[in-house]
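To fix ideas at the outset, we first show an illustrative case, written as a sequence plus integers encoding its fold:
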Amino acid sequence: MKGFNQINIQALRLYVAVLDQGNFSEVARREAMSPSTVSRVISQLEQALQTQLLYRNTRAVSPTESGKLLAEHARQVLAQLDLAALDLQEQDSEPGGLIRINAPVVFGQRHLAPWLHELNARYPRLNIELMQTDDFIDPLQDSVDLLIRIGVMTDSTLQARTLGQQNFRLAASPDYLARFGTPVTPDDLLNHSCLVFKGFAGSQRWYFREKDRDWRSWNLRGALTSNNAETLAQAAIDAMGLVVFPTWLIGDALRDGRLVSVLEDYQVSTSPEPQTISALYPNSRRPSIKVRAVIDFLVEKFGSPAYWER
């Protein structure tokens, strides 16, 4: 422990630089030092740690096993210090400039658009470009800073921060249930009009399960299929049938009684895998201050659990 107390940050930076360059001379040139000074710093580091860190020869240097271990930890320490320095520099900085955001159409209308004026008031130097589409977007190819995406998250090339869970309800209008009866089990849905979303992957399947049991899927049909969620939700409100939709879409209609939740003893979904509402950004060590500011703002406004779940 005493040896570690004698190590300074500059020595660690020089040590990592020597490993990256493979010799003392190039590091000395870049740091405006003599090669003998660089060599002496590394020797002092070895003395402090009481272990050999480098194999030296006339052409190059290479790390010993102890040297490799130190390098691994040194890189982590230096990276954290760099982040801390950046945080301190940005502490009094105000997010500004253009931020390109892409979001699903309906979610953007329901849960982003109502907050834009407040986001603008908080960060007046921020210029927001919000594009709403349900198509696949490659943030690198399409120069997008922040993606809002809903569903099963599988893309490991992007960093993600969860904004909320996507929870589903099976619902129908009181008028529909009064006319055609209330289903008691998922099998009863075969005798009902089920309003199913149909996208590029085909008609959505509905999954149900009782507590602690496996998911089962049903292919159902009814008076209407559509690739527009709001159209189907309105059709359900107008007593055309039942829908399975997330609470962020039909939460208001459930709260004010235009729709009624059905089969509440069952969990319902459109996939057996957990689905989230997430903020995604290109995989890098650190998102920009403007991206962090927008994500933090949305986390604050959505709440936990999200306000549409309450």
